[in-house]
Amino acid sequence: MIKQKIYVILFLSLLTGAVSSLTAQQTHLVFKDKISEKPVAFANVIIESLENNDEARKGFTTDVNGKISFEITHPVKLTATFVGYKNLMDTIKSGDDKTLFMEPTVYNVDEVVVTAQFRPVTVDKSIYKIKVLGSQQIENKAAMTLNEMLAGELNIRSTRDNALGSSITMQGLQGEHIKFLVDGVPVIGRQNGQIDLEQLDLQNIDHIEIIQGPMSVVYGSNALAGVINIIRKESDRQNVSINADAYYESVGVYNFSAGGSYSKKKNSYQLNAGRNFFDGFGGVDSSRYQQWKPKLQYNVDGSYMYKAEKTKLKFEGDYFYEQIQDKGIPLEVFNYDKAFDKYFFTNRWAVRGELNQKLAKKSILNILSAYSYYSRVKNTYLKDLTNLEETLVPEADKQDTARFDNLLFRADFNNIIKSEILKYQLGVDLNYESGYGKRIKDNKQQIGDYAAFLSINYTPIPQLSIQPGIRAIYNTNYDAPLVYSLNVKWNITVPLAVRLSFAKGFRAPSLKELYLDFVDINHNIQGNENLIAETSQNINFALNYSPQTPAAYNWGIDLGLFYNHIKNKIELAQISAEPLLYSYTNVDEFYTQGFEFNFNNRVYPWLKIILGLAVTGRKQYDESSNSNHDFIYSTDATTQITYWLQKTDIHFSAFYKYNGAYPILVLNDDETTDISTISAFNSLDINMNRWFWKRRINLQIGGKNLFNNTNINTTGSQSGGIHSGGGGSVTVNWGRTYFVSVQLKFNK
After folding, report:
1. pTM value > 0.85
2. Helices (H), 145-199
3. Are 480 and 507 in contact (CB under 8 A)?
4. I need a labelling partner for 3 at 20 to 30 A (CA). Which of 19, 564, 585, 590 fits?
């Protein structure tokens, strides 16, 4: 009897194996470029059960011939991704032996964007004109910070201050009118109204989304000129991902970062850390004084994400630390054996939680909550140059600490009714900011901004979308008006799209502009609690023509026109010459207008050229000083070239920008306005890179600022104002440099 049972078990086992061998068959796939029909090597491929069984999910990488092979018993859903191609999705059956064609993307029109959207959409379907700087562009430019990435863009001007860092103007409006976001959360810690863009590292960044023009309906204050949203990478569907980057620049920059992610079923984890070091550069006395101050930075960010079919829950945190050292000149009173050294310490950290929940087939609830912290400390030491001992200077005005924090709660509900004809988004946006420090009035000040907003998207025909929006604001310090906007998108033909927007904006003065007295290496700025809030009106027009035919040569044009009118614009003005002192004041009327034009060319797959031209005009009128100027204009021109030498697999990139003469409106201590003009200059970055070891290691070398720009001459009043480099010039860079970068990427 026992033997019979054994025989039965053996028979059933053999029968099961035979059935399995009959049903589990080898599947062979080849991935090719849809245009060139060449293999797509090292593409990421995920297969998963059609029943959403996470245990059945597997990952593969195509070989050098674009091939993969695997065994399956039932049909599976396949997703293939690769940089420069649209995501490919298909259903694969057991035993399939076929070729799949991946379609290359052209000029980021297929990039998915989230900024100001009801729900994620591709760039070409957004009602807003959005410029996307993707991860491939960031890598091609070898940009380490947000400032480096934006400096070469049209309609954006970059300035650098030895103490305050880098800032930009956009559409002729300064950084205090630009909302900087990281994954939708505002970046706090403005100095002189500006965010130091050199503190925003591009490690672990997926892409950057830029919307030019007032976005006050969606994002409230500080969004009169537009929004720049930095989107971090999310843990992808690979089980394990590891990356490391090392960067050296000949001026004395040594950067290193590393990170990784891990995913299992519906959960994923991510951690990244980096260290940036700059040795300082330039100056009269190279042994002590340096025009560009030594700088040390640390960055850490981590996240946890739960992602199911209808739910996405994400918790994220990041920390930034910076130390700037200002070495003083040896003092004669101490026989040149001692000097005053100043240290500036910045700490910024934020924690955020995000929930995206599908409540029904066509409705979604999004909730975002965050706490952000920022502090800047100044310490002054008397340093003995013989034994290197440091003694903290006892005078109170030599030491300073300022601290700011911000609480954010944002929630929106969006729904689609009547098919795709009518959509709406209803939300609340609550912000509360506090400032602390001995240079802040009464050592503590707060400001709250609480708003509700509504946007309705009406699509009477598939080619036409009309989206009005409104925002009601309660500000604890100022009476805020009702803010509104109207956006229209019309696809005249398949390749031709026109966008038109009209918007009203509002910006309340910041706590720093109101109450903070800011004193550092070369600044003395007083707050003004009598400032009036700004209001604005804006018109934007954009035309895009992209005949995306499946051919080797593709081209397209982008044209944008803008007009901004700001009332009671807050401006930094010199209020005394001896001692040199600045404060904030209101200017009655301020205007900007201009255009931007891009001509895109691509000979697939080896050549891509983008030519751009932009003209920006500004003028202001102030009745109290009887100051009135006509529009003064500046011109920018850019050329961006990427070239792929296919035989050696080397990619060349060149980024050229002509920065035309740039007029600055300067307010004098006698309340008159003069014009100071920064001379025109050219900038050029060139580099080349190549992947090794199945696209796991990338080596990149190149040169930056090859025209060797340092201090640019200025003419007219004030020699450039508060950002002057002295001697009738402004600082723009530390000169010509060369760099080498090594990247390691590993996915399993």
Report:
1. yes
2. 146-150
3. no
4. 19
